[in-house]
Write a structure and sequence with these properties.
Protein name: ABC transporter substrate-binding protein
Distance between the termini: 87 Å
Keywords: Signal
InterPro entries: Bact_solute-bd_prot1, SBP
Subcellular location: Periplasm
Strand content: 15-25%
CATH class of the largest domain: Alpha Beta
CATH topology of the largest domain: D-Maltodextrin-Binding Protein, domain 2
Family: Belongs to the bacterial solute-binding protein 1 family.
Helix content: 40-55%
CATH superfamily of the largest domain: Periplasmic binding protein-like II
Number of domains: 2
Shape: globular
Amino acid sequence: MSKPLSALTRIAAGLGLAAALAATPAAATELTFFYPVAVGGPVTKIIDDMAAAFEKDNPGIRVKPVYSGSYQDTITKVVTAVKGGDAPHVSVLLSTDMYTLIDEDAVVPFDDLVKTAEERAWMTSFYPGFMQNSQTGGKTWGIPFQRSTVVMYWNKELFTQAGLDPERPPQNWNELIEYGKKLTKRDAAGNVTTWGVQVPSSGFPYWLFQTFTTQNGIELMNAAGNETYFDKPEVVEALQYWVDLSRKHGIHPPGVVEWGTTPKDFFERKAAIIYTTTGNLTNIRANAGFDFGVAMLPAGKRLGSPTGGGNFHVFKRSTPEEREAALKFVRWMTTPQRAAEWSIATGYVAVSPAAWETDTMKKYVADFPAPTVARDQLEYAVAELSTHENQRVTKALNDGLQAALNGTKTPEQAMRDAQREAERILRAYR
């Protein structure tokens, strides 16, 4: 039979119980994380693994990734959720959705979340080129994560067969036409079996078009996101050049070219040169059964590409604890080491100079230097098209581009109509 506890023993036991209760972790802070799956590859597994690793490092926080379709699907779902009072805590969305998220009063600027000097230094650690679509009105609304530029991929075997130097891609617009003519192949019946050049015009037509306008020395919008310049002569000239690749020179597929099938056409040797995102680099490296090259886009009046891709955003309808957890998650995901690992796994550009200084990245590019192309092209990059009512404005431009590529409108008429519609949409913001 046990002896009764002395008063001292009872007090000690009570203190032990209190200590045990104090050591019991509080209920975990749960974060809903909307993530767009828009580029090929096992991206969802990578995100799941990163979320699990974050939870291991941060036992008091749980992250629930929600795979929300394309970028367009995701912004639609996010805006609907915001209006219904059920917004996620954090999401990766196109950097160009910044004005839409601000206009919907959906997100909180990171300036309101950071508290320490270390956190403020982190906010300034990213490439300036990526911050052009992340900041407005003196505040930082997005943190770069899966960012990109458009680059050129070429099939070195097809270059050799065409009598071209496989190590020297076209350097300018004239050479792109010259090379394209040598690379385009036709069968005995005159049907094209390999196109010299392929630039996709579905999915993100405006983004690929911005490569040509940037190289022709003009930007499509102002920094305030309330003016567009679609009908400027330099813009019309850029569109005429794209149209002429097919209609005049016969080196580019006619009509609208699918975004999603362009890498596959490259793998199957149906296209010798393609323009696509750096986010396809790992996919192309894994699936191209031939030696390929990656280079900056050919210059017009200048070199250039728009930046692209997604930023982290933190949403307003959340508790202080949830915002603090969301900031911790975004910081964790964008550390130099993880930015390097993410870049290697996906092909996106590592978003900070410090990521390129990690041993992991140095070793990777020593064996495979292609990722440095997009990084170096940032020197010539401009902000991706982003305005208030961005979905509607880009649709007006996309419709015009596809009308010109399909031949139902001249480039001049297509851009004039797109500008008229954009002005109507943006009038309220001026």
